[in-house]
Amino acid sequence: MKNDSVDYKSCITIAIDNANKRIKLLEKRDQKCILEEYKEWLKDGVDYQSILLLRDDPII
User: Is the pTM value of this prediction over 0.85?
Assistant: First the structure.
């Protein structure tokens, strides 16, 4: 059970780091818009049915 917790934390850390890197590539005005969207999404809670995962090798 403890390993699952560590795995989740590392996945969340990687996701946040990746989002931060992508946001920094944007112009200031666009950065602000994206940050506001993230805040709204996190404030409203995670709806697992609305999360879309994109893969390099999609299975259809």
Answer: no
